[in-house]
Amino acid sequence: MGEPKKRQLASDRSVSAKKQKQEEASSASKEFEMSQQQQDASIPVNYDFSSLDCCERTKNAITELGFEKMTEVQARTIPPLMAGRDVLGAAKTGSGKTLAFLIPAVEMLYRLKFKPRNGTGAIIVSPTRELALQIFGVAKELLKYHQLTFGIVIGGANRKAEADKLIKGVNLIVATPGRLLDHLQNTRGFVYKNLKALIVDEADRILEIGFEDEMRQIVKILPDDRQTMLFSATQTTKVADLARISLKKGPLYINVHENRDTSTADGLEQGYVVCDSDRRFLLLFTFLRKNIKKKVIVFFSSCNSVKYHSELLNYIDVPVLALHGKQKQQKRTNTFFEYCNADKGILLCTDVAARGLDIPAVDWIVQFDPPDDPRDYIHRVGRTARAGGQGKSLLFLLPSELGFLRYLKHAKVPLNEYQFPSNKIANVQGQLEKLIDKNYYLNQSAKDGYRSYLQAYSSFSLKKIFDVNNLDLAKVAKAFGFASPPKVNLGTIKQTKKEENDAPKNSAEAQKKKKTKA
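The line above is the sequence of ATP-dependent RNA helicase; the predicted structure tokens follow.
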């Protein structure tokens, strides 16, 4: 009789902790907010890129990128940044903030006539390697007509090659936190004493995945006489703490999505489907076959689940790409760019791809495994309907998970229920179970995926909604192709919410993070 009460108490504590976290976040953002009148005074009414006080080299590059009009975050951020202000920006994913910080950084380096011998003048810190590569790609295009040097330093890449380039002089650097700190501490001849701008992108994500100590050390090592730009999708107490130690007194606080009716893009059509565990894969298989000529991203809760489903779908002639944290860096980079350049295709991934990445023309976002937090939902669906475009999203929910809709509604996420007639769903369960039973490699992969799915589920903080004890394991097993559940001992497996994509491969970062085994 006592056990349900214990679970209820744990759920209450979880909800209470979440409420406290939201209150802290609200308080943190208010510390940096200016009055609306002060903000409006510095906002230009002209949204044309041609109106910016940029050199012709930068303007020509912007034109070749195909941009004429600035987004709101660009129009409100670029002029004060070019005037030398420190900025704390709250901007929704897909809002155009990459150009918002790159244009001022490039212009600053150009006006100061930076040469390789001057070393590094601007550093952009990104939470993940994929996002760093993407920012680097945009920087490369923007610097097309400039003589400035630029480079990227990320975990998993060749450290010696990076160090050799830094010693020769790199004016603009894109970096992940651990590898940047490693070079700051250990690469002799890396000139950063002339640094003029530090840009921290996705600051909340950087801190969320455990790089708080690294960021504090980086800020401490770098020269104080610099401009700092801090961008964060959410304002938390940790972001506020980082802002306090990195920004000058009285920074400009810019929030481009306050007072909006929804937290997601206007061009995004969002829905959910309620489906029992044993029907989940059948519905996913039917959906993917129907949308085989579209560009679709499917999110899973674990690396092993991505690995299994990609192996299975490719085996049964539904071609897919996979992106997850257990892959080597080169494989991940190649997969990411292959999908970016494709007109159609299906990408299976973990949250490694959920933050900040700009993948062109995505038609559908499918959240096969729901996220633990509405903020993660918002970041996932932010991969489509970007920069004023159109897109659709589909969230899979078990009947026991419908309570998650209340949290989404509170977070201003509008969803409609989608209906999929049962007679339209391909019933391939028998063939699936035969395949998993006979194919040894798929069988092992399915076991790993099943175990990791339960592991991830048991780690969710919203226990009232995502309670692993409420799952029908026989039905869950069927979704992974098993006629009966494989034996899994959840109690012996340590669970971490941090993904391997953020578990760095270099020495400075490796001391901080251990890879998850699931």
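Note on the example: The first helix runs from residue 2 to 32. Residues 261-502 form a domain with the Rossmann fold fold (CATH 3.40.50.300).
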